[in-house]
Design a protein that fits this description.
Helix content: 40-55%
Radius of gyration: 24 Å
Strand order of the largest sheet: 1-3
Low-confidence stretches: 5-34
Number of helices: 20
Strand content: 5-15%
Shape: globular
Largest sheet: 2 strands, parallel
Number of strands: 16
Mean pLDDT: 93
């Protein structure tokens, strides 16, 4: 099977020639090693521009991560603390955690805006050129248009969930007019409609499978369109409060996810761990993933720098211990005697001492997600988590994140300065997403009985995922007990609570939860309840507070407002 990994490293696009005064020869010749704009319009170079657009899916950095949204989806959700060397270590992420210090002048927000629009720009530039090519000259024209529109919609989706008020720019707008495009004139739902339109085109155009690993497919587009429509189904007012739930969009989510499920191409992996290990990254659960690589001709390879700060202080790693699971999240993995979540009481007592993991029953996904003192780390019985692996335990406790980290002897690991990164592919949409999106839509449609077996599929897989969770002598690391829900008492309200809890357990520390809380309209209540308890455990959170109607979205970066000479309107409350 061919792959986009090696192709991405080979694409280098130069579009500007610098004129040198006083030398007519230089003014009339392109400098060596550059490519003029017209030269990009050959079939081979158009293919290269498509690959360059794919490449930008993973062109982030640990200071401004977007392939992993951990600072924005986990640190802001109550699932994790910022971590690192203390609250001043990347203080901007500390502001995200506490909400009270968030300002439009924070540089990471401007950099995130810029990087995501670079992704939009690469897709638009390639689309502009491909649109002008004839099908005879460029036989792959229609399919590449669909791929590029998928990529563009992906970046716009992230912009919308982060900033809400964003200007929409497509391939038909002249570059000089960019600063004249308002971020509010089009209207929020109209921007969502344009994003959905790109995914619809991709779903209608793309094949069910691709020969090149990494290219998007019909089913990836249908899954992503379902995600868009599920987000849009929770209609928000200008204060970001959910005012209604759109039944038509929910029906479309059921239909789209049904197509993906019925395709037979995807399935839950037998073991939850298979989604988080390099050795098992090629699996049937991945619907849309971002290819990573090493030894590809670039200095460090195309590696997962987004999570480069998150490795523990173990000698085998060495830096920097960001993205630390909260005590609230750890407690949430407790189960009752029936193997079900403890919705109302899970946080009344903490899993603190090693004996607690034997005297309580827990969901196995705990030991797939959290590094715990005395427990084997990342499925290595001889690699036991030690207290010294925590950088500042007096601030953030003694745990670590684990899903995004790879084993220290993995061939996928690359050392980049003091940091580590891996070449494991990044799963952006997996089959568990699709099952739970369909279950959620069914519940909101009042068809909760149809949602029950979907949620239980996910729970049953969790219950079966204990094979790697053992000490060297073969005994289980923790006392596991997860059971499926029964139909008894399965009302719409109970099913909604179960679905939302299941999403937390399944996608914990994957940069997702905050955006779920916002679209459900429960962020303020959930987070302020969280701070009321968590501030008693960690003094640095005593000032933390979520302000409804403001903190659901990041501020529009001040640099971008300045760029448009005040045309962009700031989000409420900033």
């Amino acid at each position: 099977m061919k792959t986009l990994r090696s192709l991405a490293a080979a694409v280098a696009l130069g579009v500007a020639a610098l004129p040198l005064a006083g030398c007519d020869k230089f003014l009339k010749q392109d400098p060596t090693g550059t490519v003029s704009s017209d030269q990009l319009n050959t079939a081979a170079n158009l293919e290269g521009m498509v690959v360059a657009a794919y490449a930008n899916l993973g062109n982030d950095h640990f200071s401004v991560p977007y392939t992993s949204m951990w600072p924005y989806g986990d640190v802001r959700s109550g699932d994790s603390y910022k971590g690192g060397g203390g609250t001043g270590d990347i203080n901007e992420f500390n502001s995200l955690e506490q909400f009270v210090f968030v300002q439009p002048t924070i540089g990471q927000f401007d950099a995130m805006w810029y990087r995501l629009y670079v992704g939009v720009g690469r897709a638009n530039d390639a689309l502009r050129r491909i649109n002008a090519a004839s099908a005879a000259d460029f036989p792959n024209k229609l399919q590449r248009q669909a791929e590029l529109r998928f990529i563009r919609a992906h970046f716009y989706f992230m912009l919308k969930e982060l900033f809400n008020r964003v200007p929409y720019i497509d391939e038909n707008l002249d570059l000089a007019k960019y600063p004249t495009v308002s971020n509010v004139a089009l209207g929020s739902d109209s921007v969502w409609s344009l994003i959905a339109s790109d995914f619809r085109f991709a779903a209608a155009t793309l094949p069910a499978t691709q020969a090149d690993e990494g290219r998007v497919t019909k089913y990836a587009a249908e899954a992503y369109l379902a995600k868009v429509q599920l987000w849009r189904a929770y209609v928000q007012n200008d204060a970001h409060a959910v005012t209604s739930v759109d039944q038509g969009r929910l029906q479309e989510v059921v239909q789209l996810t049904g197509d993906v499920i019925a395709s037979g191409q995807y399935a839950l992996t037998p073991d939850f761990a298979d989604n988080f290990l390099f050795a098992t990254e090629k699996n049937k659960e991945a619907i849309f993933k971002i290819n990573m690589s090493q030894s590809d001709g670039t200095p460090h390879g195309r590696v997962d720098m987004a999570n480069g700060l998150n490795y523990t202080m173990a000698p085998q790693y060495g830096c920097c211990w960001f993205h630390i699971p909260s005590q609230n999240l750890i407690n949430a993995f407790k189960t009752d005697a029936q193997g079900l979540p403890m919705f109302a009481t899970y946080n009344q007592t903490s899993l603190a001492d090693s004996v607690d993991y034997q005297t309580n029953t827990v969901d196995p996904r705990l030991d797939h997600t959290v590094g715990i003192v005395g427990h084997p780390f990342k499925y290595e019985p001889g690699f036991v988590f030690l207290p010294g692996w925590a950088r500042v335990p007096q601030v953030y406790g003694l745990h670590s994140s684990m899903k995004e980290l790879q084993q220290p002897d993995c061939a996928c690991l690359v050392k980049v300065g003091p940091f580590f990164a891996s070449s494991k592919d990044i799963e952006t949409i997996r089959y568990a997403d699709v099952l739970l999106w369909q279950a959620e839509a069914l519940i909101e449609l009042g068809r909760q009985n149809e949602a029950l077996p979907l949620i239980n599929q996910v729970r049953n897989r969790a219950a079966a995922s204990t094979g790697r969770l053992k000490y060297a002598d073969g005994t289980p690391i923790s006392n596991y007990n997860v059971q499926p829900y029964s139909g008894a008492g399965w009302t719409q309200d109970y099913a909604r609570q179960a679905l939302r809890y299941e999403r937390r357990m399944e996608f914990a520390m994957e940069g997702i939860r905050f955006f779920d809380l916002v679209r459900w309209g429960v962020a303020a209540q959930t987070l302020n309840d969280y701070f009321a308890v968590e501030a008693q455990r960690h003094d640095y959170l005593k000032q933390a507070h979520f302000t409804a109607g403001r903190d659901e979205y990041l501020p529009i970066p001040q640099n971008q407002i300045n760029f448009t000479q005040g045309l962009y309107q700031q989000n409420p409350g900033y």
